[in-house]
Specification:
With 392 residues, this protein is mostly beta strands. The protein has 1 helix and 15 strands; from the N terminus they run αβββββββββββββββ. It folds into 2 domains: 43 residues; 346 residues, Lipocalin. 11% of the residues lie in helices and 62% in strands. A hairpin with a 3-residue loop joins strand 10 and strand 11. The longest helix has 42 residues.
Amino acid sequence: MSELINENDNRATIRWRLLTGASALALTGYVAASAVAKAEDASHPQLWIELGGELSRLSDGQETFSPNFPDSPARPSIFSPSQKFERTPLYSIDEYGRLLFQPEGSDWSFSASIRYGRSTSNKHVVQQTNPKAFHLLRHYYGQTNQYTGFPSAERFADTASGNNEEHFILDFQVGKDVGLGMFGKNGSSTVSLGVRFAQFHSKSDIALKSDPDFHFSYKYNPYVLYFGFTSSKLLKGQAYHSNSASLRATRSFRGVGPSLSWNASAPFAGNPEGGELALDWSVNAALLFGRQQARTHHQTTGRYHGAQYGDAVRPIIFQGPTAPDHSRSRNVTVPNIGGSVGLSWKLQNFKMSAGYRADFFFNAMDGGIDAHKAYDRNFFGPFATVSIGLGG
């Protein structure tokens, strides 16, 4: 019996020693892994400074200036319409900067970013005809001479258009990496909450001039002397309209509101020590509460130079509108969505990225002239950034 008891005690001792050894090995492994993880975390920069730029394709809609002249066409039909030359700037080069801070050993991050862009578009287009010269006979002291005259006017359309655009976007965000290794050891998936501030401003200055219907007026009487000239088709005068119109407008939006974003990165080639390639993408949304303003002034004037008037006399036959000035201001809520996709190359504390980014702000601007008309403000195009990590 005692031998059986001793055998059971030995087995219990062996099992205890095995359990103790396994526990000690697991604890040793855990401590070693923790040390390695802390060493890796310590090697990661705590502060990233990111600088870059973007070639943005702009979608800055606003109402076209198309004045109406009741007594004559606005411009000759043979010429291109003025709206073709009134377009707002198509592109801008944006500047971008970002600071990202991630405390040591934490999966939380804090960031602040700024984006600024400005663009200008100026056009001056003159379209005109070249009317032929006319020939008259001059009788003076019994002598007859042929005289060649030149028109004092011609059909033309003159369009001068200047448009300026400026945008400024500021973000503050707090994020947490919730990837849990789903995109690899060095991958990340960060969900962030924050505040977005956006400010847009535009200015337009447009001037239109035209003579839509210049023509000669003749009097058929070969025997009547007219200012010393006579002809079988006697020139009586040159009649034409002279139209002019101008528009000056300033428009703006300023708003702030909560934002939500998701930024992810999935390495697919290389390693952190020798250089690593990754696919990066992001999605963002915000709801901005702000103020929308528009101030416009436009004037339309029509004159007529009849054959019976001298060259300096051009009476006004139309002028409008009766209320040329408009000022509007209202509180608005502007939804904003956007996203990006690109590739990045990272080597320890250095990172380069390039890709395509878009941001859409719905009904952000009052682009109307006489009345409110809401238009979107959109930005989309290729970007490139360079990041440097500090600390760690």
